[in-house]
Queue: 3 jobs
Job 1
Amino acid sequence: MRNFKRAIAVTLACILCTGIVFTLIAEVYFSNSYYYYQDSETRKNYGGEIDFLICGSSHGLRAFSPEILDKELDCFSYNISGALMTMQGRYTLLKKEIERNPVKTVVVEVSYNALSRNRVKEGAEGDLYILARLDNMAERLGFFFSAMKLSEYDRVLYDTVNRGVQCIEWMTDGRKQVDTTVTKGYNKPQGIYDCTVSAETYEQKFHYTKFSETADEYNISYLNKIINICKEKNVRLIFVVTPISSSYEAEHSNTDIVMATVREIAKNADAEFYDFNLIKGKDQMFPADTAYFDISHLSASGAETFNREFARVITAAENGENTDDLFYSSYVEAQQYYNCIK
Amino acid sequence: MEELLEILEEINPDIDYETATALIDDKMLDSFSIVSLVTEISDAFDIEISPKYLIPENFNSVQAMMKMIETIQDEE
Amino acid sequence: MSITSVTFILFLLVTVILYYLIPGKYRWLVLLASSMFFYMMSGISNGIYILITALSTFGSAIFMQKITDSQKRYFKENKESLTREDKAIIKKKNTSKRKTLLILTLILNFGILCVFKYSHFALEQFNNAISLFGAQPIEDTMKFIIPLGISFYTFQSMGYLADVYWNKIPAEKNFLKLLLFVSFFPQITQGPISSFEQLGKELFEEHKFTYKNYSWGIQRMMWGFFKKMVIADTLSPWVYDVFENYSQYSGITTLIGAFMYSVLIYADFSGYMDIVCGFCEVLGIKLTENFDRPYFSKSIAEYWRRWHISLGVWFKSYIYYPIAVSGWNKKLGKFSQKKLGKTFGKTVPASVALVVVWLTTGLWHGASMAYVAWGGVNGLFIILSLWLEPVYDKCKSKLKIKESATWFRAFQTIRTFILVTFIKVLPEVGTLSEGFGLWKNIFTSRIIPDSWQTLLPFVDNIYDDKSIRTIGVVIFGTLLIFITSMIQRKQPIRQFLGKFPLIVKIAVFVALFFLIVYFGIPASGNAGGFMYAQF
C-alpha cells in the first residue's frame, strides 16, 4: 500500500508541475491576440452593440467585410467566420454572440462542401482556432472535450504549446498584437489569383468531376441547432453562397444537386437563400482575373464588389421586391453565361 | 579432467582454467571457442552434445563442463 | 495502433489498472486479453495466422512431451527387462517421431512466414533466372497484408518448440498460457525475442506493485518516447531525403546522412525497446535487453553481440550452434583440418555455420538481394576476423600495442562505428546498386557545399528559427544519448538520477515532456511508424 500511495503522490506531483508549466505557456497564447483570429476581447467589448452577424467558414471569412456592410446597411455587423470552421464551431460562437447582442440578422455562409465536409477526415484545425476565440479556460476546456477526438489530443497539446512558445518569442521581441476592432472579423487576403483558363482547358475539364453529395450527419445536426437558436431569437436568417471562380465551378457536374439540399434546409427554416454563383452578370461583377484570391475565395477587390451587391440584394428583399429575377435558376443555366476564358 | 584441460589449453592457453568460474559470463570464451570445444569434447569423450547443453551454466568452469559430460554419458 | 498515439497510451493505462486490480494469480489473463485486443486492432483477418502458429506449436509440443514422458515411464517400469540395445532402438524410434513433428511444424510456420515475406522476392529471382533463357517474366499480382509481428512471433514460437524438442523445457500444458507467450503485445511488433524459459517465468509469476518498478518503468518510457519521437522521427525525413537524392548532394552531406542514419536507427529501435521494456517494468515483468551501448563496440563481432541482442541470441541458439556442432559439420571440420591445416581447418565448421546465420539474418531483415548482401558483408567481416586473429595477434605483439591502452580501444571503437555505419546504410538506400552509389558519392562527389542550406539540404529552410532549434535538439539529443551511455558503463541512469532529490527528477520529467510535445509530436505525425514494424 505504501508503494502505491507513494506512486500516486509522485504521479500527481508530476501532473501538477506539468500542468503549471503548460498553463503558463498556453496563457501567453490565449490571453493575447498575436494571431489574426484571436478576437475574443474585441467581440466582448462590442457586446451589446452587434445587430448583424455573419457566420461561415473560410469563404465567409474572405467575403464579408463589416466595414462596408455597416455603411451600406446602416448596421453594426461582425463577421465570426473562420478558416476551416466546423459547424460546431460556428454554432458555439454564434450562440455566444446572439445571446449577448441585439442581433436582428444572421447570415449563414454555405458553400459546396458545407454539408459534406467530414470533421474526422479534416482533423482538428478548424476547432483549434475556436479554442483561441473563447473567453476563458473553462469555456476552452468545455469546447475541447466536446469537439476534440481522443486521437487528436496530442495535436491540440502540440498546437497550444507551439503557439505559446511563438507568442512568448513575439512578446519578448515587442511584436504588436493584431487589432481586430476595425476589420471586425474580416480577413482581407493579399494578392490576386488569375482564374481564367484557356478554352481548351475549360472544355477538357468541363463537368469532369463531382462534389460530394452526401450530407454529413454532424453538419446537419449543428446547422439545425443554428437555425433553431435563430428562430428562438426571432432573427432574419439568410443563407448565402459566396462566389467561387467559374472555371473551378464548371468542372463539377452536380452542383445543382448539392445545392438543392441546402435550398431545402433553408426553405424548411423559412430562411432567405441567395446563391451568388447564379447572379446574372456574375463574371462581369467578379472578373475571373481579379476578383479571386484562389479558386474558391474572393480577393479584396472581389469582396468589395460582393459586399455592395449583397447589401443591394438583401435590402431589396427587405423592401418586398422580387429578387428572383436577379439570379439564374440553376447552375446548368448559369454556366451558359460563364465568361472565364483567357 | 586432464583431457579436458588439454583441450582447453589448446583452444585458449591464456586462461587459468583451474580457478576460472565465469568463462562465458566474463567473455573469456566466445562462441567460436565453444564450437571448437564442443567438437573436441564430443570426440575425446565419445558423446553427442545436443544443443540444449550449450548454455553458459555448463561452460562457465571446468567443473561445470565435467558435470555436463558426466550427465550426457549417464543418459547414454 | 501507433505506439506514440494517445489511444495507445490510454490502452496501456487501462491494462495497468486492470492488471493490478485483478488478484496476482490471474493477472496474466489481463495480459492475454490486452494482447488479443491489441492484435485485433491490427485487422481481424490477420488474426488467423497467429492462432495457427499458436495452435500448431502448442499441439506439437504436447505430443512431443507425451512421447518423452511415456518413454520415461516405460523405461522406469521395465528397468530390469530392457537391455541397452532395446532402449537404444526405442529411443531412436521416438526421436524420429518427435523429429517429424518438429519438422512438420517448422515447415508449416516458416512456410507461412516465407509466403508472406518472400513471395515477391522469390518471384523476382525466378523471373531473373528465366529471363536468362529468354522467357517472359511472370506478372506479380500478389497482394499480401503481412500479419503483425509475424517475423517475431514465428521465431519466438519455433524457438520454444526447439527447446521442447531438445527436452530443455517441458511443454506448456495450458494453451492460453502458450497463446500469451506467442502474442504478448509489448514485444509482438519489434521484439525482443524471448525464450519460453525467460519470458514464461516473468509472465506467469505474481508480481507485486512496487514504487521502484513504477518509477523506473515510467522514466524508461519517457526516455524511449524522447529518443523515438524527438530524435528518430525528426531525423527520418532528413535521412530518407539523402537516400533519395544523394546524387545531387555533396560527399560530406551524404556522409552526414549516413551517420544520421546510424543515430536514427538506434534512437528509433532502442527508443521503442525502452517504451516497451519500461511498460513491462511497471507491470513487474522483466523483458530481455536488446541493446548494450552497441556503438561502443570494438569489433563487428562484438557489435552483433550488443545490437538487437535477442535476435543474435536466437540465431546463435537455434541456427549457429545446431549447425556448428552437427555431425556432418564435424566431419567437414576433420576433412578441412587434413586438407587445409589444423588452425585454418578448425575454423571451417564455425565459418560454415556463420555463412548460414548471416545470409538468413540478412534475409530476415529484408526480402531483397541488398539485404542478403548486407548479411553476407557482416558475415564476411566476422569470418575474416576469425581467420585473421592469429595474424592480428602477431602484428600487435610486433608493434608492441597493448590491447587495454585507451587510445587503442578508442581507435577500435571509432573504426568499428564507421565500418558499421557504412555497412548498415548499404541495403537501406534502395537497390544494391543504389547503396553502392551512395558509398561512391561520399568519396567522389564533385559538389562542394557553399552555404548551410547546401550543406544540409534535407532541412527545409535552415535559416528558419524552428529549423535551427530542431537541428539543435537533435544534436542535443544525440549528445545526451552519448553522455547517458558513458554513465551507463558504471550504473543504470535511473540509479544515477535516484541520487538527486525528487524535485530534480520531476524537473527532468517536465523538461522531457515538453521537448517531446514541442519537437516530437510534429515529427512523429510526419514520419509515420517504426522502422522494424513491417516485420
Job 2
Amino acid sequence: MTTAAVLAVLAMACALASWRLTSARWTARAPRTAIFLWQSLGVTWGLASTGALLSYALAPRGVLPGLTALGTGMPKRLDQVLALAGGLTLLGVLIAVLLAAVAQTLSARRRHRVLLRLIARDEPGVPGVRVVDHPGAAAYCLPGLKSQVVVSAGTLRLLSPDELRAVLAHEAAHARERHDLVLLPFAALRQAVPVARIAHDAVALLIEMAADDRARRYCSAKRLATALLRFGSAGSIPAPNGALGAYSDHVMARVERLMRPATLPRHARLTIVAGSALLAMSAPLLWVI
Amino acid sequence: MSVKGLGELERSIMDVLWAEHAPLTAREVGRLIAARDLAPTTVMTVLDRLTRKGFLTRTRDGRAWRYQPAESRDAYVAELMLEALDMTGDRSAALTRFAQTVSGDEAEILRKALEELEEER
C-alpha cells in the first residue's frame, strides 16, 4: 500500500509541477534543459499514475512482479479488481494513443513525401532545399531518415538572402536533432488527456527556441528575428478561426530572446538535469520493487 | 532502374499528363517523354504504380487503358501547403514548421515589432 501511495503522490506532484512549469520564466533561458524536464515529467506521470492503480490492485506484490504473476492468481477484493481494471485501461490507452500517433504521423509523412517528389522542384540558389510553387509563406522540415527542408516560392520572395539562410539553419536544426520525435509523445498524450495540450504547446515552443539557438551559431540572430516577424506577419493565408490566439506571443517570446540572449547559469542547468534524471528513474524503480 | 530514377519518371509522367487535357495511353505518354530512351513496359509499370497510389485514374479504351491525373497539380500544391501551414484541422505532428503566418491584430503586432527592429541599428 505504501508504494501505491508514493506513486499516487508522485503522479500528482508531476501534474502540479507541469502546471507550474507552463508559466515558468527560466525555460526560455535554457530550452534544452526544460525539454528534458518535460520529458521526465511526462514519463514519470504516465508510469506513476498507472503504477499507483496497479500497485494498489496487486499489493502486497510490486507492480511488475504482480503483473507477471497475474496468471497464477487475480486480486479478489472488489476495490482491487476495480483498481486493476482502471490501471490496465489507463496503461492501454496511453500505449494505444502513442502507437496511433506514430502510425498517423508516418502515413501523413509518406503521403507528403510522395507529393513533394511529384511537385516540388530544386532551386539553384538554395541547394538541398525543395521548393513548392505557392505564393504563401511556408518553411518546414519533413522529418525522417532523410529529412527534407521545404520552402514555398512565396518564402523565397518574402525574405532577404540573409533571412532565408537563418530560416534554413533553423530548419536544419529541427532535422538534425529530430525534434519531431521529442514532440510526438506530447502530441499523442494530448489525444488521451486533453489538458496535456498545454504541455504540448509549451514543448512545441521550447523546440522552436532550441532550434533558434542552434541556428544562431550559423547566422545572424537579428536576421533570424526579422525573418520570424516578416514571416509571421506575411498574412498571405487567412488564419483559421481563432485557432492561434497565443501565436504572436510565441513569436514575440522568440524574438525577444534572440535580441537579448540570456542563459541560465550552468550550475542551475546541471541541477535541473540531475533532478530530471532522478525523477525519471523514480517511477520505474517503484514499479519493480 | 534505380528507385530515384523511378521517382523522377513518376514526376515526368505526371507533368506530361497535367500538361495534356485529355487522357492518354501508355504509348502516348512514352512518346511525349521524348528525351528518354524508355521501354514501354517501364512506362506501364510507373503508370500502374501511380494509379495504385491514387494519383491517376484510368479508363478502358478498346484494348488499352487511358490515364489522367486524379487531381490537378494546384490541388496537390494546396494540399501540401495546408499541411505546411498546419491548417488541416488535425494539428498534425508530421512536420516541424518555422513559424505560421497570422492575420488581423496578431499580424499587426508582429509588423510593428518588425518595423522597430529594422530601425534599430
Job 3
Amino acid sequence: MPAVEISGLVKNYGPVAAVAGLSLRAGRGQVTAILGPNGAGKTTTIEICEGYRRPDAGTVRVLGLDPARDARALRPRVGVMLQAGGIPTTVRPGEYLRVLARFYAHPIDPAALVDRLGLGESARTPFRRLSGGQQQRLALAAALIGRPELVFLDEPTAGLDPQARRATWELIESLRASGATVILTTHYLEEAERLADRVVIVDRGSLVAEGSPADLTGGHGQLRFRAEPGLDTAGLLAALPPGCVVKESPAGQYLIEPPGGVDPQVLATVTTWCAEQGILAQSLRIESRNLEDVFLELTGRELRS
Amino acid sequence: MTGWPAPAPGAAPLPAMIRAQARLELRTLARNGEQLLLTVIIPVLLLVVFSAEALISTGPGPRIDFIAPGILALAVISTSFTSLAIGTAFERRYGVLKRLGATPLPRAGLIAAKALTVLAVEAGQAALIIVVGLLLGWHPALSPAGIGAVLAALVLGSAAFSGLAMLMAGTMRAEATLAAANLVYLVLLGIGGVIFPLSKFPAGVRPVLRLLPSGALSDAFRSVLRYGAGLPARDLLVLTAWAVAGIALAARTFRWE
C-alpha cells in the first residue's frame, strides 16, 4: 500500500479548477517532491491529503485512509508543516514544542529537538521576533515532534538562506533514513533533485511528468558543438537514427537530441559526418538535461502571474 | 540526538492534551497587556472609583453592595466575551486554529481547553474583585443556595458570552472582531445594566435591557449577593437561552481558517 494514493482528484474554487484530475502515488519510506509553478495546485493537493479540504471529485487515500472521514485516526500519524502561519505570535519555541509534545504518545524530547534545529539560542524568544529561517525551522520541528510516519512539508525551505536550506535538506535525509515517508512541495529544482526518490511535476492542476530525478532528466540527453554558422545538416540528420532532432540555435551552435539519449554510436556518426564535411567541431560535449530543463520544457518558459 | 528517531506515532490521552493547551492559552493571555487591562485593571478601577464617589445613584444601602456584583458581571463579560473573541479571531487569522486541526487535539478538546481557560481567568478575577470589594466595605449576602446560584449564573453567563464571542471570531475578520468586541464591551458597560442601574433607563426599554445577557447576569449576581435571593430563575433562563442560541449559531457558522 502506498503512503498516499490520489486518483482523478478535482478541486474547484468557484470557476477556477485548482486541481483538474490529478493522479499520483507516493511510496512508503520515500521522499516524494511535488514540483510545479505557482498556482499549479500543489498546496491544494497537499491540503486535501491533510484533511483540510474535501475533493470535488476523485479519491484520496492517505496511509490507506480517507483524510476527511478518518481525520481522527490520521492526525497522530501525520506531521504537517503549513506553507505559512500556524504558530501563535507570542509563543516561545521551547514552550511551543513542549505543549505540542504533550499531544503525542511518544514525542521527540523538545529540548533535543530545539538543539537539533539550532533554535537553542532563541528557545525563549517570542515567535514574531524570530528570523524567517528560525520560524520555518520551528514549523518544521512542530511537524516532526510527534514522530509521525508520514510528513507533509509545504515549501519547507522557501525563503531560507543557503546554510539553513542545506541543514533542512540534511534533516529531511535523516528523517527518510529513519523510515518516515516525506511528501514535500518545492519550487527549487535542486531541492527535488537532491532529496526526492520520486518527483511529480504538476501544472495547471494536472500531472505532467513523474519519475525519479534520473528518469526525468533522461541520463545523457544531448550533444552540442560549435562550428561555422549555416551548415547544411540534412546529411547528418539522414545518417542519425530515426527520431533525432538537429537544431542550429543560436547561429553556430549545433544541438543533436537523439530520442534515446546520446550513445557511442550517435557520437561516432556525428564526428564521422564532421570529418567527411571537413568541419572541425569545437566544444563538442554531451550534456545531460537537469531537472530545470525538464521542468521548463514541460511547464513552459513564460512567466506566470 | 544522533540519527533521527524512528517513527512512533500515537496520540496522548485527551485530558493531558486539554491541560497542555489550556496552560498555553493562560500563559498567552498573561503576556497580553491589552487583555490584562481589559480583564483586570478596568474592572478593579471601576470598582474603586464608583464605590468611592457617588457618581451614580445606586438606590438604598452602601454603593459597594450595588457596584461589586456588577463588576463581577463585567469581569465575566471581559473574559468570556471580549478577550475570547479577540484572541480566537487572531488565532484564526494567523492559522493557529488551522495548524491545531492537524494535531491529535480534537476540536472538542480545543473548546474544552478554552472553556477551562475562561473559567480559570474568571476565578482569578473574582478572587481579586472580592478581596478589593471586601476591603472597600462590601457585605455580600451569602447562603449556600446563593453561592450555588452565583456559580450557576457565572457558568451560564460565560457560556452565553463565549457563544457570542465564537460567533464573532469565527465569521468576522480579526481587526473587525477586535473593534466590535471592544465596542460591545463599552456599550454593555453603559447600557447593559452592569454599573448603571436599569431603573434609570426609560420604562419602555427596561424589559429589553433585562433580556440582554449582561443585564441578566448583573441582575442575577445582584439579586443574590445584594438582596439574598435564592435562585434568580428568570435571569438564569435568559442566560440559558442566550447560551443555547449563541453556541448553536457559532457551531453552524464558525470557519476554522
